[in-house]
Hints:
Residues 14-68 form the HTH lacI-type domain. The protein is of the alpha/beta class.
Amino acid sequence: MPPEGAHRPRRGATTIEDVARAAGVSRQTVSNALNAPHRVRPETLERVTAMIRELGYQPDQSARSLRSGARRTIGYLAPADDPHDPNPLMAGFLEALVDAAGEQGWRVLLFRRARGAADPTAAIDELVAARQVDGLVLADVLAEDARVEHVARLGVPFVTFGRTGPAQPQHWVDIANDAATAAVVRHLAALGHRRIGYLGGSEDLPWMAARRAGFLAESRRLGLAAVTAPGPEAAGVRELLRGPEPPTAVAAGSDLLALDVYEAVRAEGLAVGPRGIAVTGFHDTPLCRHLHPALTSVRLPLGAIAAALVERLLDQVRGAGPPPAGVELAAELVVRGSTAGPAEPRALTAVPAEGARRLR
Length: 360
């Protein structure tokens, strides 16, 4: 804090030198606090940040961009979606990404391929050519994703939500999908279930394939009878429930698929819950809390995912080079009434307590 009686600049006219004098640091330290906070000691960063707020200092973004060539803007290539039926997970992810970028003094520019266009690379080329962003975030990444190949060839800093192929740059952040569904199986087994059904989405999607693999592997390890729905959505679950040895629980690869399980269970005259058919979902979207009974589901750490993506991208922008390995984060199982009765929801970690595993 500046000494009592010290002159305080008029708000709106504060300079970086004013902040440096008031905080008792150099001009370069204030610049580092704004542009490279990892270089500043935590106690100094806290003091400088407090003085920036108190004095109302607003950096001249246009001048900074001219000096550095940086726009302090991250481009997010939004996956194609139906505006009348949006993906609830991607909405939450975008909120987390904007927050994580904002904490670093950056903003997010949302863009999408032209309506009807099959190839998204034209939209990427247009944005890069206009020099509107310093790097890109890609989501819904497939194993050999053409977008990843294209951006890598352009030499643009980028990161992906979802792991890239082994021959591609390992710029990804993802969750341990297999460990998460293994935790679901352990939870259901602990409740006494020995025959468990599974309803998954398209196995062309690597995250869905990983969820199914984790479910089956953990079921085998525990000696459980695991059966997968033979058909899509509710019809496949109804076929399972009509079989000679129906499951007493059904795990779904997403919350939306869990809705199909609810529909199938009730269509067969059964109840959802610990006294009927236990059901779990994946993603922990807001609808989980509004179902009856409320849905047990795997919660993605969207804040941690977004923070890791922004950190890894800004490292590249600042010249640290591409990361040598992807990072895998833990998810958690949030238990609700669809498996464990009306008790208060509780979270169970889906991978070991150390949280993240770095993979090559």
